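Translate sequence into structure tokens.
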Amino acid sequence: MLDGVLAQLERDGFSFCRALTPEMPTIEIAQVLGAIVNIERLLPSSGIPTVQVLRPRRASDVGPNQYSGYFGLGAFPLHTDLAHWAFPPHYFLLRCVAGLDDVFTPVLSWTPIVESVGTPVLQRAVFGGRRPRIGYSGLVRAMSEREGTVVFRWDPIFLKPLNQEARALAKAMGNSAWNEAALKILLKEPGDTLIVDNWRMLHGRGDVKPVNVSRQIERVYLSEVFR
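Result follows.
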């Protein structure tokens, strides 16, 4: 299994496994796949669990520090998870507990965006976190590097453009063509598992009908995938 996941990640920037041992807890699957980012230990005051349960919620039921607080049951725009961190988690895992057949997870490679906007713009685009706090970087770039690996990031809510290049990227990302170009993945059956390279790919969430709030996805962040 690990060889197949790694090969897909390296080729496509994500790996999708259907009904991956649904009887196993998500935390155990994550431990097999890679090194877990222990959010509870890293940021004990945040109240964020290491295994996060994602359910559709109305905007009125959620605070402004979450995507549901802005978009409610509507579609989530393409973004990088935890883009305001000094370095966002390299990977994340989404695992279906209770799925739906009409709520998709779009994923999009940064490659066409780089080709459209240009590497120099991305390298110079500087953003600030919406609310800088301990553990977060005050200033980040859309394109940076960590230990020889390129790190891309974008978030329309939690990053504020601070220079001309950042505003240019924000304008470019407002093009609906990116959403149309994204690959739509359906987490429908228990155990359906999506592993995403958060440094290479953007992702979002399709809109949810009010009668379909039973959807439940679990998420775990990984600092590496085992080789």
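Note: The longest strand covers residues 216-225.
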